Each structure stands twice: as structure tokens, then as C-alpha cells.
Amino acid sequence: MTMTTNTTVSNRALAIKPSSTLAITARVRALKAEGRDIIGFGAGEPDFGTPDRVRDAAIDAIRAGMTRYVPVPGTPEAREAVAAKLQNDNDIACTPDQIVISNGGKFSLYLAMQAMLDPGDEVVMATPAWVSYKPMVELAGGTFVEIPTTADSGFLATPQQYADAITPRTRAVILNSPSNPCGTMYDPDAIRGICDAIAPHDRVMLISDEIYERLVYAGRTHLSPASLPSMRDRTITINGLSKAFAATGWRVGYTCAPQPIAKAMARLQSQMTSSVTSFTLPALVTALTECSDDIERMRTAFEARATLMESLVSAWPGVTCPPPMGAFYVFPDISAAFGRTSPGGASITDAGTFAEGLLEETGVAVVPGDDFLGCGPNHVRLSFALDEAAIEAGCGRIAAWLEGLH
Ligand code: PMP
Ligand code: GLU
Prior knowledge:
Layout: H1 11-15, H2 20-33, E1 39-40, H3 52-63, H4 76-90, E2 99-102, H5 104-116, E3 122-127, H6 133-139, E4 143-148, H7 159-165, E5 170-176, H8 188-198, E6 205-209, E7 235-240, E8 253-256, H9 259-272, H10 280-290, H11 292-314, E9 329-330, E10 340-341, E11 347-348, H12 351-362, E12 364-365, E13 367-368, E14 380-383, H13 388-403
Parallel strand pairs: 1-12, 3-4, 3-5, 5-6, 6-7
Antiparallel strand pairs: 2-8, 7-8, 9-14, 10-11, 13-14
Helix pairs in contact: 3-10, 4-10, 5-6, 5-9, 7-8, 11-13
Bound molecules: 4'-deoxy-4'-aminopyridoxal-5'-phosphate (PMP) and glutamic acid.
């Protein structure tokens, strides 16, 4: 008798594309391992190390025997530290029982969608937007509704556009300010305007992804929607250690949600991952309570890089790009290159062939904008999470390659 293995995968798995940002990161890693001279503007992760104090707190916790299961939403100390951070830094009135700590901001967002959406529910978001929101909405049975924006408006939508996108089926609006991939952000008045547009719709919740909140430049301020009294019971705030604390591999994110939603997220988490890794929790407390100087050191470095990027990108022939305001991304429009031929003879027809030609011919990695939706197909994303010498060298290679298009 022959044994057969049925390796057919589910329709759900078939329908999901792999994350293109992580795919580029993996490609850069593989090319570097082959010894290629690659300058990677692909990965959306800080190049700094996690602050020593945070590492030490985890090591101390392991040595102290914190190696067992912990409460599903996190230890009381960690949930208290997150609630205190949100109260002190973001002016969000909240209690520890509204906090759920999860395996990365990405899983926090996934749980939020799973906890809130039923089939047919719509989730509204301005695009271009980070690659994972739409798949997460769809995995929860929802429909992702785009508000397309363009570079002219800094990729920002108006309160009226949000109001117009809301229908009786809308369950949530997602905000991600500062934005991945756009590098732009809403000012506090714009946030207030968007919240006013949502306010009349009782059923609509706001999911505010504030993972880049600490990385804002030129004196800009970030306003957390949940700090507005009208939005306190309507907002799910998501954040985590990855970006501000240069801790992408730790997989620590957190959510502050109205209690019923926080409870539902914890219930789901109890059947999915049980909790975050135990010894990251004291490290999270240390990060949130003792590391403001580390955060500021990294923010200042990113700010200088943002200025450098802006000046270098603005000199690229045929390319337009709003200046970076926050996060560590620029999202230039490179569509003037479509229909032309690269110095190495490749036909540039879209953002994918642009990124591929650039990588093959110059060793510079960028992310094609297609999966960020909206006008994304006309753009590529560059993450400036690399040192200034590498930024100058990489942007120089891009400039020379663009000059050679014919
Ligand atoms: N939101 C946005 C906009 C992001 O860019 C990222 C980065 N991957 C995340 C959430 C999630 O980050 P993490 O899972 O590493 O906390
Ligand atoms: N958020 C980062 C990026 O956009 C990390 C990869 C991911 O999770 O998408 O590149």
C-alpha cells in the first residue's frame, strides 16, 4: 500500500500573500550572506541595539527564575507600567485591566481585529498603508476600505474623506500616525478633526497604531486619539517595544482597549500564544520606566537621518517625495522611470522592476510600493534605519542609477 500525504493548504492560507517587507529583509540577509555588497533601505527596523538596561532586565529575570507561564495579558506589574506610560506620556486615562501585552504590535493588531470584526464589517484606512493591515482585516472576515491619498497631501486624508468613507457597515477606522510607509503624520488638529468625523457613528471604533509615536521630528507632536474624552471609550491604542526601543526581535507589543475588547483579546490570546515570553515583561517595565534618555538618543539620530534623506532624495532626477515628519521612512514617487531602460539594460515598467533593477545593478534594496496599496504602485519605500555613511553611499548609488536611465 502506498502512503500519500495530502499537502493541500486551506483557502485562508492560499488567499494570504507573504509580507513583502519581511520578504525584502530576508532577501537582503541572503545576498549579504553570499558576500554581495548590499545597502539595505528595506527593513523597517532600527539598526541600533536594544538599550543595555532592557537587556539586563531580561537576563536578570531569567536568572531569578522567571521562566514559567505568566498571566495571559501580562503580569500585573507590566500592565501597570503600560497603563502608567499611557497616562503619563499620552494623556490616556486608563487602568491596567484595559491592557493586553502580546507578541509584537503586529499580533496586538491581529487580536484587535479578531476581537472586533464579524464577516461583512468594514474597516476604513487611508492608503498607502503598511502591508499587514489589509490581510489582518481579511483574516478576521472584514473588508478593508481604502481612502486613497497622494503625495500632494502628504498622504494624509481629510476629516471629510473619513466621514465620506464611513457606512453603516463600518466597524473601525485605523490610523497609523506617523505612518509606515509614508513617513508623514497628522498634526494634533487633524487628529481632532478625524475624531470629530468618527464621533457621530456609535458603532465605529478607532484603532490607533502608535508604534512610531516616539519617532517624530522637527518639534512635531503626536496626539493620541484616546486622550480626547469623546474617544476614550472608542479607541484601541496599539504600541510596542520594537521601534522606539530598537527591540524588533523581542516581539513585545501592547494594547489599551475598552475593557470588553481587552478581555476578548486576552481570551483569544489564551488559546493562541498563552502570553508573551515571561522574561520580556520585566524588560518591558524597565524600557517604559528607565530608558527615556536611550529613546531620545535614537530619536535624535533618526532626526538627523531624516534631514539627510530629505536633502539627498530631493536631488534625485524625476522623483518627488514629501519630506519625512516621523517614523523612519520616505516614500518617493518613482513613476517617471516607468517605460525607461536601466543603465544595466532592464526594462522599468513598475515599482517591482524598478526595485529589482536597482538591487541587481547597484546593490541597493528598497521595497516596491504595491503592497502598501493606494498610489503605492508608483512608489518605493526607503527605510533610513542605517547610519549616515550608508545613507549617503546608498542614495549616491540610486542617484547615479537614475541619471543613467534612458
Ligand atoms: N505597525 C506598523 C505600522 C509597523 O510598521 C510595524 C512594524 N512591523 C508594526 C505595527 C508591528 O511591529 P512589531 O510587531 O514588531 O511590534
Ligand atoms: N514594520 C516593518 C516594515 O514595514 C517590519 C516588517 C513588517 O513587520 O512588516 O518593514
